[in-house]
Amino acid sequence: MASTASRSRPTGVPLPPHAKQAAPTASGSSSFNGSSSTKNGVATPVYNMQTSNVVLVRRLKRKQTTPMKQFTRWLVENQTGLAANLFALLFLAHSLFPRLRQHTVKFFTLAYLNEETGKHNIGKDDAYLVLFLVVLFSGLRASTMDYILSPFARSQGLYKKKPITRFSEQAWLVIVYMFFYPFGCYLYYNSPYFLNMENLWVHWPGREMPGQLKAYLLIQLAFWLQQIIVINIEERRKDHWQMLTHHFITVSLITASYRYRLTPVANVILILMDVSDIFLPLAKCQKYLGYTTICDVTFGAFMLSWFICRHIFYPMICYSVWKHTPKVITFGCYKGLGGIGASPTSVRVGPNETSTLFGAVSKAAPFFSDATNNRLAFLIEPMLDSEGAICYDSVVKWMFLSMLLFLQLIIIMWFFMIVQVAIRVVRGSGADDTRSDGEDEDEEEEADSETDGKNSAKDEFVFEEAQALEEEVGVESIDLKGWERRTGVKRQTSASTGVSLPGHHSDRKELLGRIGCEKQVD
After folding, report:
1. Is residue 220 part of a domain?
2. What is the pLDDT of residues 223-275, one digit of tens each?
């Protein structure tokens, strides 16, 4: 027969030796470990014993959660649902409201198509597609990690949250780069600048480009913008600022090359970067799954591809910017659709025929341009006006080259870290990327324990009244001997006469009678 009994269980922690003080009971006495108590000189049954219900509670002093942290946590936890709702709203508006289609169509189509040439120009409407792709990457990343990669990690023996999250993040990068690299190689192989450095600049400033190349660059731009968001809303790694700087430089280079019509060189640079980015996350995934030998082999392939692509071929691109652009490109400002050697519609304009919107600001610019007297407008006009003049001179060349070289500097710093990992592999310690944060769970637990030890002195201890815990129990769950095992006190009975000590049978009958079972006890 099941019934409801109230079991009083303290919610605090036991009193430490220096803090144990008996709280007064209802009868005026106090006891912690006694097996019996007296009330008016009469022995009280064990179930009527009254002890202190005041316990010592440790309150941890935690850091306050700011509204921004709460918002970012909400974003991380709801990326899939947020992306799905935004897409549902967009496509419902597109299908149900015909008047809105001229605006909603910009989010998922390539803008500025020239039907005569079959190529695309660029403009401000490209931002709609980039925004759509950023949300798409966020939703795909979160859903793929939660519903595909995390279950796969558990099936391979990963159970802790941290390794599962790290594995899912790296596996997602493998998937993305396995798409980017073949796509970029396909465009490069079918381009006129395949294995020809000088042809990277021949068709400048051709304003129109094939739709596949435009899509490739916008997808890459959206991915790196989404990566900037990710590293700022998720748990920060120890190389957070290096990664953030790298991402900002990458976004700046893609944007500048896109707006200045230097798209061929952007295609080549992205290919060189993507090939090594496949091997590193793949090696990390193998490390998490315990395949240490193949992980070391993959890390060796990563190191080789990194050195060849980023420290041999990439400097060749920088050299081409410095050496070939002054020879192939005639410095000046141009308007029109075609490139210098490809179309007569691209004409050179006078030094003062650029935009005059920034004339007042241009006078305060600290640098001088040989191409135009308007010192600042010629740099900004291509970023704002897709039909305006595009200029290339020594200022543009050195600004572009400076960003490329600064990116190379960051890559060199990372390469020294990679060499340190390679030395450990040779010594038999195994590959472990030093650029990411402490991904060893044991190290994190040790750090947490040290932090707890430092903060324990700052915690406060207070006395609070213990709350009763209501539980649904049956008669068979009641253990009348449990208190004896917990306290170590046993009742003595007479084995020779078979007579129990007074109160034992009556106490049990009274207890069962209180919970409605008195009819079952004789």
Report:
1. yes
2. 999 999 998 887 787 878 888 988 998 999 899 899 889 999 999 999 999 99
When pLDDT is averaged across residues 140-155 and rounded to a whole number, the result is 95
User: Do 352 and 372 form a contact (C-beta atoms < 8 A)?
Assistant: yes
Same structural domain for residues 85 and 225? yes
Q: Which of 218-222, 378-382, 440-444 has the lowest mean pLDDT?
A: 440-444
Q: Which two tokens stand for residue 182?
A: 């073949």
If one counts every other C-beta atom within 10 angstroms of the C-beta of residue 456, the result is 10
- Number of Cβ within 10 Å of residue 422's Cβ equals 16
Q: How far apart are CA 121 and CA 261, in angstroms?
A: 10
Question: Is residue 37 domain-shared with residue 110, that is, in the same domain?
Answer: no
Domain coverage including residue 243:
67-331
Q: Do residues 151 and 40 both lie within one domain?
A: no
Dump the DSSP string for 72-139.
HHHHHHTHHHHHHHHHHHHHHHHHH-GGGHHHHGGGSS---EETTTTEE---TTHHHHHHHHHHHHHH
Is the residue at 309 inside a domain? yes
Residue 102 lies in a domain: yes
Distance from C-alpha of 117 to C-alpha of 264, rounded to nearest angstrom: 19
* 311-367 pLDDT per residue, tens: 999 999 999 999 999 999 888 878 766 544 444 355 666 545 555 444 444 444 444
Q: Are residues 275 and 205 in the same domain?
A: yes
| Residue 135 sits in the same domain as residue 55 | no
Q: Are residues 30 and 134 in the same domain?
A: no
Helices (H), 289-393: 292-308, 314-323, 325-328, 359-362, 377-384
pTM value?
0.69
